[in-house]
């Protein structure tokens, strides 16, 4: 076995960059990223959890993706994810309504029934049942488009919400390029309705960040947030406060990823003021926004900027709140992956493994089907101090 096979992915990027005699700036330019992004990847502060990004880096370094991953085969489950993403891509790309080519023998679903089906898809996603959501969404997208074509008034909201949940799922599956198509459709369908636009903008922020456009994401999220912001926060409607606060959180996460730590903290503080007017235990516009959600975002920002100690210290307090248990399984497990990464960066693989196992207990698909979870599992499992249960899980999933 080559000695580089034992290195974390980021260290392998640095190794092969050196072999190719490329500076961090040159590699960043060829990838369309910032030098800071490359530096964080190589130091392990940022995780490479998207197959498309791994392919791009491998192409620039002139090596096989398997070499970059430190193994000879694709990660287990990759083909299933690719197939699922492709089915959704096809559903988003048919344009049967625009071309006036409705599929035969497919009755139009009433708007009320479509709303129920859309709500079921959101529930499936929020319970982190990603394979089931993949199965639901292609047909739901087609049904939503047909219903909206026949009933623009009644079908508008479920159409936008269908595109939103589709974009959210595609981001989870490491396919921001296809998610961009879904969120662009959502923004177009929502145009003219300030609440619908704000709701769709939440997923727009996620897609922009996952596409490596953190600076653009921050600017767009701030514009969307202040457009929906109430004149006086203390008297704001909880639903609008939830949208505005969530957009500020998205802007803060983008600022942290872009290296603008001061702005990130200020935006989290602003979102916290709005969260106080909403309270925990609500899910306005499928945001899960409230004081606990903002505190989780504050911890994620700390981890993003490399302050693992602050992230870990805050984490130990926040999970004891009632608000923690009221958040969706998807929200909690996704956050736990972020905090497990912070523990790993703090050279604490034991607690990183413990947190990952907790995430797997809450939402198995976050580890088994989400590229970010699988990649972190592989990193932690390589450490000799990792929990035995975790190494067994990594072996079972073929990521060890």
Topology overview:
Elements lengths: L8 H11 L4 H8 L3 H9 L7 H11 L3 H5 L8 H15 L18 H16 L3 H21 L1 H21 L3 H15 L3 H17 L3 H15 L9 H20 L3 H16 L14 H14 L3 H11 L3 H5 L2 H17 L3 H14 L1 H5 L2 H11 L6 H10 L3
Helix pairs in contact: 1-3, 2-3, 6-8, 7-8, 7-9, 8-9, 9-10, 9-11, 10-11, 11-12, 11-13, 12-13, 13-14, 13-15, 14-15, 15-16, 15-18, 16-18, 18-19, 18-21, 19-21, 21-22
Key terms for this structure?
400 residues; mainly alpha; 434 Repressor (Amino-terminal Domain); globular; disordered N terminus; Cro/C1-type_HTH; TPR-like_helical_dom_sf; DNA binding; Lambda_DNA-bd_dom_sf; Transcriptional regulator, contains XRE-family HTH domain
Could you walk me through the main structural features you see in this protein, from its secondary elements to its overall organization?
The protein is an all-alpha fold and 400 residues long. Among the domains are: 9-69, 434 Repressor (Amino-terminal Domain); 74-191, no CATH class; 328-399, no CATH class. Helix content is 72%, strand content 0%. It is built from 22 helices and no strands. α1 packs across α3 (35-43) and α7 (111-126) packs antiparallel against α8. It is globular, with a radius of gyration of 21 Å. Mean pLDDT is 88; it is low at 1-6 and 72-76.
Distance between the termini: 15 Å
Biggest β-sheet strands, sense, barrel: none
Q: From the alpha-carbon coordinates, what is the Rg to the nearest angstrom?
A: 21 Å
Helix-strand category? mainly alpha
What order do the SSEs take from the amino end to the carboxyl end, as H and E?
A: HHHHHHHHHHHHHHHHHHHHHH
What is the residue-averaged pLDDT? 88
Helix percent band: over 70%
Model regions low in confidence, pLDDT < 50 over at least 5 residues: 1-6, 72-76
Task: Estimate the strand proportion.
Answer: under 5%
Find the count of extended strands (DSSP E, 2+ residues).
0
Shape: globular
